Amino acid sequence: MSAELWNSAVRVLDTNWAGDHMVPSRRLYPHQWSWDAAFIAIGLAYVNPTRAWRDLRSLFEAQWPDGRVPHIVFDPATAEADYFPGPAFWNVPAYAGRAARGSTGIVQPPMHAIAAWEVYRHAAAHGANCAQEARTELEWLYPRLVAQQRYLTTDRNLGRGGLAGIVHPWESGLDNSPAWDEAMANVPADLALLSQYRRRDLDVSHAAHRPTDLDYSRYVGLVLSYRAGGYADDGLLDRHALAVECPAFNSILASAELALAQIAGVLGLAAESATHRDRAGQITTAIVKRLWNPATGRFHALDVKTGKLTPANCVSGLLPLMLPDLPAELVEAIMAEMRSERFGLPVPSYDRTAADFDTMRYWRGPVWINVNWLIRRGLLVHGFRDEAEDLRAAMVRLVHRNGHFEYFHPTTGEGLGAPTFSWTAALSLDLLADRSVPAYSKAG
Ligand code: 9WN
User: Fold this and answer.
1) CA-based angle 242:175:369, to the nearest 5?
2) Is 201 a catalytic residue?
3) Which residue's alpha carbon is at the smallest distance from atom 12 of ligand 1?
4) By the 8 A CB rule, do 276 and 258 touch?
5) To test ligand 1's pocket by mutation, which of 28, 31, 33, 219 has the most ligand atoms within 8 angstroms of CB?
6) Reduced to 3 DSSP states, what percent helix, strand and coil does the chain have, rounded to the nearest 5?
7) How far apart, in whole angstroms, are the C-alpha atoms of residue 99 and residue 103?
8) Is 80 a catalytic residue?
9) What are residue 292's DSSP bridge partners?
10) Cβ atoms of 151 and 232 closer than 8 Å
11) Among the atoms of ligand 1, which is closest to the Cα of residue 170?
């Protein structure tokens, strides 16, 4: 089974390679996506580390002068009509020597320091040339990864509580999650926008799987609002209709600091390494202080505009398990939630018992491999080795039986969305290689 799965994963990654970057899927997502590139690099490290580094480099070459890493880097060879909203809609000005309309102006979860560290750790296995390449790439990436963290922890500290706020559901990577429903209800929905700007996702996927028109009109409106202010973050909270703090995004933000601590250590930057560890601790403390709800015993997203925690019980609330310094009773609470009938392994994107749990629709029920990969990492960080192994086996089975789909039906396992999806293939390689050593255990 594993050779077959391995080979099929490699084929997907070969098909989706576009010269200097990987597309998540040829038809549905024909550009480069930010957090996809990180998950993809983690898998490419086993079969083609040079491509893993190239993909990360292509993404960071599009980094903005303020440090933000755009959620999509547009491929100039792809027609405007092939993805909506495309380069003309975002209308990003030229920056740092790059042509105008080269990227979007929003971000995605900062998975890249974690990816860079994972690729570096594996490169040594490919011999001296790869080890040298890894060192060079790590040196190139390090200041850029630091700038990315600076942007998120400073310019995006919209709630002034030490966490990064996101201003569009697409920034979460968990786009259509019920976690945003309450906050999105306060965002004006202008359905007329969809006659002006036509959705293209519905041409290449099922309407029943994708966000509704009402959601999409809000997505489009939020981009127009951010764009109107030149994608500036000063005073954004007052003029923009959405600002939320997501437990998953911020857990990745803290984990990125831990990865940077490792990277700085390898680069001989001992003082910086200590600073990154401190920052990880500070973000962890802020996550607990701001996003934990003692009444529900769960982590929730915070609506920064209203100051209220949103009620939905989503997979994002389980991701603080990635944090090594999470207090033991909160680790236990997450584990109890995960083991309950509301979730289970592999973990669905939303509480299975919720009245609006939807087995098909984007981030409202189906299983995603990248999120489960992060959960497995959390299980390993806290020493839950048996469950980590169960989850690894469940993910491998799911992909082997159903294919390298974008996401999976949470009860039947049927593959849904794009059929040859890059991060599913890439993370399958990592899962098959089965590195069960926790990267950041409490013992260090
Ligand atoms: C919008 C590319 C991206 C992923 C996201 C996923 C989906 C885009 C969309 O696809 O988002 O960015 O059109 O729905 O939700 O996590 O990065 O694979």
Assistant:
1) 145
2) no
3) 170
4) yes
5) 33
6) 55, 5, 40
7) 10
8) no
9) 299
10) no
11) 12
Q: Give the position, in ligand 1's atom list, of the atom nearest the Cα of 210.
A: 14
- pTM greater than 0.70 (yes/no): yes
User: In 10 A of CB 158, how many CB atoms?
Assistant: 20
Q: Which of 175, 272, 389, 414 is catalytic?
A: 175
List residues near ligand 1 (CB under 6 A). 24, 29, 33, 35-36, 71, 170, 173, 175, 201
Our CA dihedral for 370, 338, 356, 212, rounded to 10 degrees, sits at -10
Tell me how far apart the alpha carbons of residues 378 and 331 are, in angstroms, rounded to a whole number.
10
First to last CA, the chain: 34
| Residue to substitute in 23, 26, 29 for testing ligand 1 pocket (most ligand atoms within 8 angstroms of CB) | 29
Beta-carbon contacts of residue 330 (< 8 Å; ≥ 6 apart): 288, 292, 320
Label the pairing between strands 302-303 and 407-408.
unpaired
Consecutive sets of 10 residues in the chain, 444 residues long: mean pLDDT of each? 91 98 96 98 96 98 98 96 94 95 98 97 84 95 98 98 98 97 94 85 82 91 97 97 98 98 98 98 98 98 98 98 98 98 98 97 96 98 96 96 98 97 98 64 40
Structure tokens at 240: 């923009």
The strand ranges marked E within 200-256 are 244-245
Q: Are 377 and 440 in contact (CB under 8 A)?
A: no
